[in-house]
Design brief:
Helices cover 32% and strands 17% of the residues. The protein has 10 helices and 13 strands. The strands form 3 sheets. It has a 7-stranded parallel sheet with strand order 1-13-12-11-2-3-4. The chain has a 4-stranded parallel sheet with strand order 5-6-7-10, with helices on both faces. A two-stranded antiparallel ribbon has the order 8-9. The longest helix has 14 residues. It starts with a strand and ends in a 5-residue tail after the last strand.
């Protein structure tokens, strides 16, 4: 694979594309603040090239995300819509319609749990697990769940994981996500079902939303932007989309030199180690 182009902004390559799928956490914001230049980058692409959708592994339905972005200061004129892992998880849950589930996730994910109209029961009575994350991601780690997940494996419960991300950056620290629990369950031999990035359901849904926003015409040249090597970058690779790696996210230390500058040699090794490739790379999302 060719080494990625080192670009300073989307303007350098935007004329090659007619639609954009942009990750949220680590690219647009860190959960606390909007990154500088992001609003201009998305707005300029949308005004000059085509529709922009935010593609996020958030384990919530898409209508929850715009108000969060409002609070961070991203104008709604910067994007056409949002597609979430929670949206894509609906279809997986439908296959278990009428069966009780064990709820594994924090109160902040109530909107997804309530929207899916599932009966939640103790683990011993459940037919499957619906996981959005740790109960308390501020104090717990995936290892705190190994005993519970071992019991679930003994009960042969499949786990639907609504957030394949293993970690996200919250301010200046990393917190664990649902994907980290799915990894532990997979190691224990449990069955895991994931619909978000890098898996097919969320991309199928995103392409249908892009087509609708593009007056019913499927975009032919879609660009993805993200910071997660095994979610954003791998997902784009699997679905034949050019992708821009953003170094400002969860791999910031691994992709930058001691001066905090994107180091293309380090990035090339990082991509190779994860068996993924990127069309381009930038320090942070900018126009």
């Amino acid at each position: 694979m060719n080494a990625p182009l080192h670009i300073s902004g989307l303007a350098e390559i935007a004329d090659q594309y007619d639609a954009l799928l942009c990750d949220a956490w680590g690219v647009i914001h860190n959960g606390i603040e909007l990154f500088p230049g992001v609003a201009d980058a998305l707005t300029n692409f949308r005004e000059t090239r085509g529709p922009v959708f935010i593609l996020t592994n958030a384990p919530r339905l898409n209508d929850v995300i715009p108000p969060q972005l409002d609070r961070l200061g991203l104008p709604r004129s910067a994007y056409d819509g949002v597609v979430t892992s929670g949206d894509a998880t609906r279809a997986s849950v439908e296959a278990f319609r009428g069966q009780p589930a064990f709820r594994l996730g924090p109160d902040k994910d109530d909107t997804l749990f309530e929207a899916l109209d599932i009966e939640f029961v103790p683990l011993e009575q459940a037919k499957f697990i619906l996981c959005t994350g740790l109960f308390d991601d501020s104090t717990e780690t995936p290892e705190d769940y190994r005993e519970m997940l071992s019991q679930a494996k003994e009960l042969n419960l499949p786990m639907i994981c609504a957030n394949p991300d293993t970690v996200v950056q919250l301010g200046d620290r990393m917190i664990y996500c649902g994907g980290a629990l799915a990894q532990v369950y997979d190691q224990l031999g449990g069955e895991t079902l994931l619909s978000g990035k890098p898996h097919e359901p969320i991309y199928d849904l995103a392409m249908s939303r892009l087509t609708k926003a593009n007056n019913g015409t499927p975009p032919q040249r879609v660009l993805a932007v993200g910071d997660g090597l095994q979610t954003d970058i791998l997902g784009a690779n699997r679905h034949d989309l050019d992708v821009v790696f953003v170094a400002h996210g969860i791999f910031s230390k691994e992709a930058r030199n001691d001066a905090g500058v994107l180091d293309m040699e380090k990035l090339n090794r990082l991509l190779s180690d994860h068996d993924v490739h990127a069309h381009a790379a930038m320090d942070q999302l900018a126009w």
